[in-house]
Amino acid sequence: MRRSKLYSLVLSFVVAFGLWLYVVSTVSQQDDRTYYNVPVVMEGESVLNERNLMITSKSASAVSLHLSGTRGDLNKLSTSNNLTVKADLSKITEPGEKIALSYTPAYPSDVSSSALTVESRNPTVIYVNVDYRRTKEIPVQVKWTGTRSENYIYDTENVILDNPVITIIGPAAVADRIDHGEIEINLSEQVESISKSFRYTLCDADGKPVDAEQITTSAEEVRLDMQIQRIKEMDLVVEVVYGGGATEENTTIKLSPETIRVSGGEAVLAELGETYTVATINLADLDKNVNELKFPISLPEGVTNQTGVTEATVNVRFSNLVTKEFLIDDFQIVNLPEGLKAEIINANLNVKVRGPAAEMSKLAQKDISVVVDFSAAEVGTATYKANIVFAEGFEHVGALKTNAVSATVQVSEG
Questions:
Q1: Which CATH class is domain 231-319?
Q2: Under CATH, what is the fold of the domain 133-226?
Q3: Which pLDDT tens digit goes with each residue over 312-335?
Q4: What band does 336 get if pLDDT is binned at 50, 70 and 90?
Q5: Which of 55, 121, 266, 359 is 20 to 30 A from 312 via CA?
Q6: Residue ranges of the domains in the chain?
Q7: Among candidates 36, 50, 39, 33, which has minimal Cα distance to 89?
Q8: What whole-number distance in Å separates Cα of residue 220 and Cα of residue 208?
Q9: pLDDT of res. 20
């Protein structure tokens, strides 16, 4: 029992001595140490901003500290973790160069500021340059380069930018030199419309780039949309329905303009073809020897008329044709459905006829009849198309536009 007690006393003594020795030799012993690359933390930047000021440069972003104190406290410090120095900006009230700032070490929470002594520091002070903080709006401009294809139209006058104006913030000395943001686009071999985002360069009034490392902007890129369309020469045509005595031999048709230049996407121009029909003309509807007709040039959606002419003029001239009028009372009813009967209300029909002089001189009322088609007839009173039929020997004669006739259709008795 006594031997066990003695053993415990000896062990306690050894442990206590070891702790004392550790404290004396490791924790409490005074030491000094140099710490390199201690980060500099600027305090009071918000105050500087309120005064519309900003730092443009500083002489050092890290310093060296030679500190003395107990080894225990010195061992707690790390430049990559918890040791920094702080410089106060709040006392700066106006711009200037090489403004000297003192700085103080900032230790972790478990190291008292009075426990360590700064034996030396390098550099002894930190110098900063301060300028006014400028905010301004600048336009974004597009600079076109390269050779453009003659077969395409580049709508550079109607470019759409999602950010035509950007806001820049930075030192007044730099911001005041910046006049605009510039996007440079090379149009060589560019035959498709552009719709993409571009980075821009901050430039002065002469278009020279400005070193804008200290400038922040409201947008890093600007989206640009510009239409590029192929140009095509297209023939204008009119479709002609010959009739009323008018044939290719006795009719002259002139169209003005004969061609126009259009632009559009490849697909829509291919679908449009090589010609564009402005109108269909039924010559039986024209009763003058000389006619001037105007038609709008209405192109499909997606096609632009680059010529600027929006109306086509068609001149129609008839040669060696004579026109006469006849009052016809000879009506023939054809294709009347079974079980129905028809009564034409018109007593007669005024018919205007045109043809070569030789045939027209022989044409008489008895040579003309009105044929009314009742194939689509229904019970009741309605109008029906009248077809003018000529006797043999008058193959080159034709009727001009003829009005319909009125008729009453009833169910036949028996």
A1: mainly beta
A2: RNA Polymerase Alpha Subunit; Chain A, domain 2 (2.170.120)
A3: 999 999 999 999 999 998 899 999
A4: very high
A5: 266
A6: 28-124, 133-226, 231-319, 322-411
A7: 50
A8: 19
A9: 45
